[in-house]
Amino acid sequence: MECTIRWSDGMSFIAETGSGHLVAMDGAPDAGGRNLAPRPMELMLAGAGGCTAFDVVLILKRGRHDVRGCSVRLEAERADTDPKVFTRIRFIYTVTGRNLKREAVERAIHLSAEKYCSASIMLGKTAEIIHECEIAEAD
Hints:
Elements: E1 3-9, E2 12-17, E3 22-25, H1 40-62, E4 66-78, E5 86-98, H2 102-116, H3 118-123, E6 128-137
Parallel strand pairs: 5-6
Antiparallel strand pairs: 1-2, 2-3, 4-5
């Protein structure tokens, strides 16, 4: 896996991933940025959320559960001093489906958290990780 980051202007950067996709990043106005794109740490949080959501859906589908939707809201706290690492991250899952069993959803989240989601496992080296889930019945 590889990624190349190129400075654009001001405090804007463009990342080109190994798969050929582009992602813009920008700094806050007080840091010389123009607030045109997400901050790098926001992208790390988004990556962890995407990684675990992917896992949960895949695990539930492989278990032949009728999953229809999955969202993960992440609430993160960072250290007050440099390096301002994440110190606490709360993952709040909302999984929608038909007749989903809480045990199956919690198992999928647990497997993601403990075995499959490299991003959240890595972030767990500096942050307390909390997982919560809500299950909604699909129409």
